[in-house]
Amino acid sequence: MSDNMGAGPYGGPHAGGPYGGGPYGGGPYGGAPGAPGTPGWGGWAPPPPHPGVIPLRPLTVGDILSGAFATMGRYKKPVIGLPAAVFGACSVLVLCAAVIAYFAVNDTVHELVDLPGGRDPEWDQIEPLVVALVCVGLIALVGYVLAAALVQGGMFTVLKNAVVGGPAGFGPVWRQALPRVPALIGTALLTGLIVAVPAVLLMIAFASALIGVSLLGSGEGGGGGALVAIGLLGALVTAVPAVWLWVKFSLAPAAVVLEKQGPVRALRRSSELVRGRWWPVFGISLLAYVLAAVIAGVIQQGLSLVGMFPAMAGAASLGPEPEPSEVLSVFSVYIVLALVAQLIGYIIQTTFPPLVTGLLYVDQRIRKEGLAPTLAAAAAAAAATAPAAPPSA
User: Fold this and answer.
1) Is residue 36 in a domain?
2) Residue 48 within a domain
3) Contact 250, 270 (CB under 8 A)
4) Which InterPro entries match (predicted)?
């Protein structure tokens, strides 16, 4: 598909797209005899088109998960390259900021280290160190928020092409995802503010329960049991709306990228699509996060264990007072493998859940708005404009 796709086949009812509002009536495939997924003249239903990573019909859990994995496999360059480049650049930026901050407060650090025993430092002595740490922390926060939004937008952009079997190179994905970063950040902030009220109440409830447990453990007063009961009940009551709101607005980032919606309209759009399908969206989203965490954990633990064997063998050969360079040399393989494992795990955890979310969005559009014929037409157009393969020898 071309780089400049506009709203494409995903234009929603608020995005000005030609397919807004689900013009196909009751059935997702138009209902004509012989149409994909509907019985033909003889009662036989032809299979739905499958131009990309999913069949163009209402999706099952297996379709969504396999579609996400297939996207990661077929579009390795943008799926792996984009988060690796973005988070790598962000990490280098934070490291440079930390090095600059260290040299800026180096004298202060030495003064604090050389303080006589038992003497507390004055605020004037620790103020430069605190300022440096806050500055580095803010740079890291802003950098990683921007990086996460860019990666999320990139995954939705890749998926837009993967569903219809189109190409998705690193450059086009970058150029299409970058303009959506401000709207993605705005959507995340709005969602956070909406969910914050029950979330804060949830934290207060947990704090009450912890205080009650502490009072019961110390044997001070009989109010501890009441605090525990109130805290646990409050946690249960506030956790439900927090999770409900999170799922209700979970498809908003996909609407931001695929329909080019603003934050407010994206939240409304997500609410419309999730309505009546809350439990499937919740269950599949939760499964995606759990799978990503498990796969990342297995890879990280496996590579770390592999790196420990040469480290343990080398440590046995060290003298009683080894030089720092010797220690670094012995543990270099372990450090490299641990960093690689961390990067792989981070890529999985930042790419797989957004891909699943994007497929959930597509599934809701297919079910509720009859998007399948539109996607099939887009796939046919992409196939017609794709360069012909060179003849085989």
Assistant:
1) no
2) no
3) yes
4) DUF7847
What 3-state DSSP class applies to 318? coil
Are 155 and 352 within 8 A, CB to CB? no
Q: Provide the residue type at 199 as one letter.
A: A
Rounded Cα–Cα distance for residues 364 and 13 (Å): 14
pLDDT (tens digit per residue) in 196-237? 777 777 677 666 666 666 665 555 545 555 655 666 666 677
How far is residue 142 from each of residues 138, 146, 188, measured CA to CA in Å?
A: 6, 6, 14
Q: Where do runs of H (alpha helix) occur along 275-331? A: 278-316, 324-330
**Max Cα-Cα span within the chain:** 94
pLDDT tens for residues 159-175? 999 999 999 999 999 99
Distances, alpha carbon 322 to alpha carbons 313, 314, 336, in Å? 15, 12, 21
HSE-CB for 127 with a 13 A CA cutoff? 4
Domain count, the chain: 1
Q: Is residue 147 scored above 50 in pLDDT? A: yes
Q: Please report whether residue 348 resides in a domain.
A: yes
Q: Is residue 390 situated within a structural domain? A: no
Query: Which DSSP string corresponds to 210-266?
Result: HHHHHHHHHT--S-HHHHHHHHHHHHHHHHHHHHHHHHHTTTHHHHHHHS---HHHH
